[in-house]
Design brief:
The protein is an alpha/beta fold. The chain has a seven-stranded mixed β-sheet, with helices on both faces. Strands 8-9-10 form a three-stranded antiparallel β-sheet, with no helix packed on it. It has three domains: about 100 residues, no CATH class; about 180 residues, 2-Layer Sandwich (Nucleotidyltransferase, domain 5); about 55 residues, N-terminal domain of TfIIb, CATH 2.20.25.
Length: about 400
């Protein structure tokens, strides 16, 4: 697709004479097609949108709702048969010229709710940032959405969206924070957001919360659709950026940009974790679908059985006021014989043998010095090596 953009922008447009006029006629295929690039990135174009079936409103030909574009060749029954044959996605894109409507599969427009008046107070206010540091026309936007939270719903209070470099982004974060005084500022902890997080934590006292991303964009967005479906997400009616917001949500995941979706899903996923409402919704859905199952009991291992028996024995001894012996008590009353070689008493029982801590000699509990034991200190000092030596 980038090759098509270069062909139009670098080849076709550069050959135009001064004051030339261009008429571009095309079927829409997606928001990334050349016609979408012209409408989105170029200035001074007048768009004439003629859907196969009128959608009412500001129709260029003043057709009533549902009227066909070329009735003599494609009457309404024929168009309805085509729509049934190709499916709604292809119909919206190729026949109605609405690639955004054909691409959306996560958020439905009928789920969007609006408010005209804010509640008296909010339990908390949060801001959600999706950041990008480049300003080229083909690059992503930086987006901040500000949310007010009540027990009944989540109110979108403001949205800022622009392509800025890092210094301007820091200034905008400060401006948004000073304006709304949020309880938390969510910043995605990724490559473009890590520098911003470090700068804000070092130089400001804003309540910045790094958000680790462990799932893909579509999974994160799907996790909050229950809020939209339940009517708990409210947008301000008449906001200048409302159309961009709803178009990007409705076009996700096939739209050109998804920065607004990332900011919205990040905020609602954070609020979902703090409220716990969606967890109950998902639990009830799983129960209804038969997906929730209690874990199967596991067979106890031999070690678990032994631990259980020891615990039962200790409990029984304690109930009978009998203290279980400690490991050291088994050896306290043992008579320690002196070393047969050096007569030292610092001996230690090792299995069925004794070992002298003074000379290193070893012997069986009922025998003399074991043949092959290392020489004693006296032997070494006197030069007598009457005992066979070896390294232990």
């Amino acid at each position: 697709m980038q090759e098509h953009y270069r062909l139009v922008g670098h080849v076709a447009f550069t050959r135009l004479a001064r004051d030339a006029r261009v008429v571009a006629i095309s079927t829409r295929w997606s928001e990334r097609d050349p016609m979408g690039w012209i409408i989105r990135e170029q200035q001074g174009w007048d768009v004439l949108h003629l859907p196969a079936v009128s959608e009412g409103g500001a129709d260029p030909l003043a057709r009533p709702l549902g009227a066909p574009l070329w009735e003599s060749q494609f009457p309404l029954p024929a168009l309805q048969s085509i729509r049934t044959a190709v499916g709604n996605q292809v119909w919206q894109c190729l026949y109605q010229g609405n690639p955004t409507a054909s691409l959306g599969s996560v958020f439905r427009r009928e789920w969007f709710r609006h408010y005209q008046q804010l509640p008296a107070s909010f339990s908390k206010i949060i801001q959600s940032w999706d950041t990008a540091f480049k300003i080229g026309a083909a690059n992503d936007f930086s987006v901040c959405t500000t949310w007010g939270v009540t027990d009944a719903a989540f109110y979108l209070l403001s949205m800022w969206r622009d392509r800025v470099e890092f210094p301007d982004l820091k200034k905008q974060v400060a401006l948004q924070a000073e304006q709304w005084k949020p309880h938390a500022i969510l910043v995605e902890d990724k490559a473009s957001g890590q520098s911003l997080i470090q700068e804000l934590k070092t130089a400001t006292s804003f309540p910045v919360l790094p958000i680790k991303v462990d799932k893909d964009k579509e999974t994160r967005a799907s996790a909050v659709t229950a809020f939209f479906e339940a009517g708990k997400v409210l947008f301000p009616e008449g906001a200048p950026w409302l159309a961009d917001l709803e178009d990007e949500l409705a076009g996700f995941p096939g739209a050109v940009h998804d920065d607004i979706v990332d900011s919205v899903s990040q905020a609602l996923n954070y609020l979902r974790g703090t409220s716990g409402v969606l967890g109950w919704i998902e639990y009830l859905k799983n129960v209804a679908l038969g997906l929730f199952q209690h874990p199967e009991p596991k067979e106890p291992s031999p070690r678990d059985e032994l631990v259980g028996k020891l615990a039962s024995l200790r409990f029984e001894l304690k109930t009978r006021s009998i203290e279980p012996p400690t490991p050291g008590q088994f050896f306290r009353d043992v008579v320690r014989p002196p070393c047969p070689s050096c007569k030292a008493v610092c001996v230690q029982r090792i299995g069925s043998m004794w070992r002298c801590g003074q000379c290193g000699g070893q012997w069986w509990h009922d025998a003399a010095i074991r043949p092959g034991a290392p020489p004693s200190r006296d032997d070494l000092l006197s030069g007598r090596f009457c005992i066979t030596t070896r390294r232990w």
